[in-house]
Design brief:
mainly alpha, Lysozyme, 9 helices
Length: 180
Amino acid sequence: MLKGLAIAGAAAVLVIVAAAGAFVALGGADLLRERTVVVPEELRPVIVEAAQRCPVVPAKVLAAQLASESSWDPRAVSPAGATGLAQFMPEVWEQYAVDGDEDGDRDIYDPVDAIHSAAELNCVNAELVADVPGDRLRNILAAYNAGFNQVVRYEGVPPFPETEQYVERVLSRAERIELQ
């Protein structure tokens, strides 16, 4: 009898381990991780304030964008050379950077400057893609990722897997953000 229970117990453990493995293999771990997007407490009021620069991009979308860009790491550097919390390329930073904390410096590593600059670039992109067919918010996000010229060229979100996934990831995360 005890041997039968031990075998049944071992079988149950194997089933659980197999189910967990299948869950992970099918992307389940990503689903659990994606359920809640945690916005650092100290950045919440900054995001809400910065989003007022560009009302067409709600604060939750701006927060999801930042989470997608750098996972809240103000020192992040991409393989392509994009830097900071909002992942600006150097030439884009030079053109669109904002002194968000009004300390006289536009610092790509300063989260306040980066957040305000991302909101400002969203507004610039909103104007640049205003006449492009399709969903305006999706086009703005695609412009942030691929450049506005690609959105104009393809008359909407360009058919680049990275950009298409980026837009979907940002919008999906925005649904799971609490800023209060």
